[in-house]
Amino acid sequence: MVFFRSVSAFTRLRSRVGQQSSLSNSVRWIQMQSSTDMDLKSQLQELIPEQQDRLKKLKSEHGKVQLGNITVDMVIGGMRGMTGLLWETSLLDPEEGIRFRGLSIPECQKVLPAAQSGGEPLPEGLLWLLLTGKVPSKEQVEALSKDLASRAAVPDYVYNAIDALPSTAHPMTQFASGVMALQVQSEFQKAYENGIHKSKFWEPTYEDCLNLIARVPVVAAYVYRRMYKNGDSIPSDKSLDYGANFSHMLGFDDAKMKELMRLYITIHSDHEGGNVSAHTGHLVGSALSDPYLSFAAALNGLAGPLHGLANQEVLLWIKSVVEECGENISKDQLKEYVWKTLNSGKVVPGYGHGVLRKTDPRYVCQREFALKHLPDDPLFQLVSKLYEVVPPVLTELGKVKNPWPNVDAHSGVLLNHYGLTEARYYTVLFGVSRSLGICSQLIWDRALGLALERPKSVTMDWLEAYCKKAKASSA
């Protein structure tokens, strides 16, 4: 069955995939150099002095170069379009989407090690890439996977802290509370209290970040089983990779679900530094708060409806369409429902993005996964129809800069297909994924000695006076 009955829409989508895939030949050579060293930390020890010198040179030679003008719209509009943050691990282009250390998602799918031939990238491989800028070998990924497994033990008091909350508390509340409880074992806090030199800040930060990345799936799975499976927890299986073990602890051992979890964690890991959760993690970390405190703060930002919580809203909205109109809804009926949603003062969840101006590549790769593994799923068919219906409606509305689907428009349908139907929990999955990106950047924040973040704020009185003065000067 053909799901994109609009040939032009399908062609545009496939064209974008092809354009991104063709970029694989332009990958920077340094990223393809795989060291024989199996230890990630020793790799960083070699890279850090070079990058410290690079930053020092950049500041001394170009510190006064202007990067653009700041407008009143930027100040009152959430600082959108304002360049003001160094974030090494990824860069978001409005037209082509996210690049992890210069690699697009299709390129990552091609060059990062997978659990099986032709399978999805292992999250451990992406973590290595984010931290080093290099594509790891399969052996390096396996070594990192074992290292993370050895760090994954969670103290009982963490579970006790979660259990102190009502089981009806939102999953993100329970998850963030668990992360805060993990902070008791912070290596950075201990080292700082013992007077560690600032040139060594990155080392205990590294230990905290690797420990945190290793433990958040365990905490997240505990929250899920507590809320939805009568508290029947499933122990970690150290023989499995990071994504597969998380799926296992949640209670899903289907091989395709494990593949989906690997893909999900990889593509949700990082989205440059300006989004709420990433920026929050960097901001709090700039005060030398340890990674646990920084990541817990990031999770609280992720829990907002305008950020990570949106992924639960998408599936709930799609199910509301099915409940009211049925699974075999026509495009005309779907268009009416979309207008009904918009006219009620609500948004169509999963569409639009603060930076992107094209279809999100993270949506595209999830669609490719669905075409491969679940082409007959009714909700997937509905998602395909929405791709044809929603963008023209939003364009007609005239108020949306980006009418195209983002990552949230697809992820819930995939999870739902394999049995993870509890939409309220989806943001926790996002949080586990985002630990890779936020923690990688926190390590580099400390290695590069990045400063305490302290932008200038102004009042409306100040803005009015400044604009009045500027107008008089130009007259």
Tell me the overall shape: globular
Number of strands: 3
How many strands, what sense, and barrel or not for the largest sheet? Answer: 3 strands, antiparallel
Mean model confidence by pLDDT: 90
Number of helices: 21
Cα gyration radius (Å) = 23 Å
Tell me the series of helices and strands, N- to C-terminal: HHHEEEHHHHHHHHHHHHHHHHHH
How are the strands of the biggest sheet laid out side by side? Answer: 1-2-3
Helical amount: 55-70%
Fraction in beta strands: under 5%
Short overview:
With 475 residues, the protein is mainly alpha-helical.
Plain-language structure description:
This protein is mostly helical and 475 residues long. 59% of the residues lie in helices and 2% in strands. It has helices at residues 7-21, 40-62, 72-76, 105-111, 123-132, 138-150, 156-163, 171-182, 187-193, 202-228, 242-250, 255-267, 276-285, 291-302, 310-325, 331-343, 361-373, 378-397, 408-417, 426-448, 460-474; strands at residues 90-93, 97-100, 103-104. Strands 1-2-3 form a three-stranded antiparallel sheet. Helix 5 runs parallel beside helix 20 (426-448) and helix 16 (331-343) crosses helix 18. The longest helix has 27 residues, at 202-228. It starts with 6 loop residues before the first helix and ends with a helix. The model is unreliable at 1-34 (pLDDT under 50).
